[in-house]
Description:
The chain is of the alpha/beta class. It has three domains: about 5-180, Rossmann fold; about 195-360, Rossmann fold (3-Layer(aba) Sandwich), CATH 3.40.50; about 370-550, Thiamin diphosphate (ThDP)-binding fold, Pyr/PP domains (Rossmann fold, 3-Layer(aba) Sandwich), CATH 3.40.50. The protein is about 35% helix and about 15% strand. The strands form four sheets. A six-stranded parallel beta sheet has the order 3-2-4-5-7-6, with helices on both faces. It has a six-stranded parallel beta sheet with strand order 11-10-9-12-13-14. α3 packs across α19. It is globular.
Amino acid sequence: xxxxxxxxxxxxxxxxxxxxxxxxxxxxxxxxxxxxxxxxxxxxxxxxxxxxxxxxxxxxxxxxxxxxxxxxxxxxxxxxxxxxxxxxxxxxxxxxxxxxxxxxxxxxxxxxxxxxxxxxxxxxxxxxxxxxxxxxxxxxxxxxxxxxxxxxxxxxxxxxxxxxxxxxxxxxxxxxxxxxxxxxxxxxxxxxxxxxxxxxxxxxxxxxxxxxxxxxxxxxxxxxxxxxxxxxxxxxxxxxxxxxxxxxxxxxxxxxxxxxxxxxxxxxxxxxxxxxxxxxxxxxxxxxxxxxxxxxxxxxxxxxxxxxxxxxxxxxxxxxxxxxxxxxxxxxxxxxxxxxxxxxxxxxxxxxxxxxxxxxxxxxxxxxxxxxxxxxxxxxxxxxxxxxxxxxxxxxxxxxxxxxxxxxxxxxxxxxxxxxxxxxxxxxxxxxxxxxxxxxxxxxxxxxxxxxxxxxxxxxxxxxxxxxxxxxxxxxxxxxxxxxxxxxxxxxxxxxxxxxxxxxxxxxxxxxxxxxxxxxxxxxxxxxxxxxxxxxxxxxxxxxxxxxxxxxxxxxxxxxxxxxxxxxxxxxxxxx
Length: 576
């Protein structure tokens, strides 16, 4: 392991130099007393700092940057509340396996444990929601510590890593070593793929009469799009996805059934209960995807491919698991299949059944019964008409997100950015900023609910200040729409704490920040406003009033099995 020395520099300068060596071009964050030395060093570094209006948003920006690029996004905060404000964003990244490096300032070592001003044990706070936490206790430890953070955050199953640096360590001036590479004792993120397991998987797939393939976020993480699609096409096996896995397979492809789960596509939820073999790649078997664990796919054999061995047999007992990078494993599975079959016929009983269910589902109320001019499904479909295939769509969390799950077709990899594991309201707007920074030449749109948008609306100030042209669409029902739906369906319309009596005028709010804004009342107006919005070189907001009474279906009620998916409104309550 080679080492270069830089003579007589401060710990703060070592932070910045290590970031440069890791090819970091952008940092999202906020300064404060405990990280001022780092901010002073940033000023002359050539690294662009993007000033968030809240540290949570800085973490979401870094998270989305990481999801779009595959490289670690970097966020910063000071000690105490600066660090604790990062927590929700870091937990979001952890839940969705996003590569993030969070750098926080800390009180000087001599003040530790004395209840110093803005002292918080941020290592203790964040250990459960980070992949690793590091606290350099001397300036000499900073380069290796930060380099380890980037390596851990981006290798194996990605995740956020915290580097907490006391202020006096930032101020120390030393001859500081910069290692070319680092090792983390006991950390082995890459393993050889078991060739016998691959052969067994191929045999199981070939023998299956009704195979389904399920893609999760691990497909995006490992860039396994090509072998994933190749295996599906070779087997002529339809594909379902998790919410995080949307985009792992082109949703315009004839073999794509769409997402499964609480608000999955009706045909996906129905057919996953009929397959005789499920190959799941890069998934957690989350309760939101599977419903009751014991009932999910109990009629089928299951193959589970994942980089993280802790996921095997955690939620769902499987017949075969293969640990490894999804790209490598799927490539080996494809080669093993190709030795056994040339190409399957596209006319077989299973595909005929798929076509039959698809046709049946076309008539369900959830897909056809849209009375209002600006219904959620109509808005989402109009977006797909207007926006180019490479458009990156971020979302907040709530009913609007579920409309996108069902009706938004993801056509290109890494263009669907949403919070799934933690379900973090407020994610959409700052995530759009991070995505646009990562891909400045691609349109980026935040599809948001009014409740979700209001949690981080001050990020509009960041977008305007930093000249980051994104479009925010606000589905405005003056309600916490998803919670209202649950109260309507399961609590006999006893609405408690969901109605906004005094929401802001979002057009005026956006204009106050210096962004462009429009309110639309028809689909035609919406389409025109969206076309105009993505053509601007500044942020834009589109306020779309909708009814709070319009529920999103299909819906798998919590605690139910996927077979109990409700596909129509209360008057119908049609169940598979």
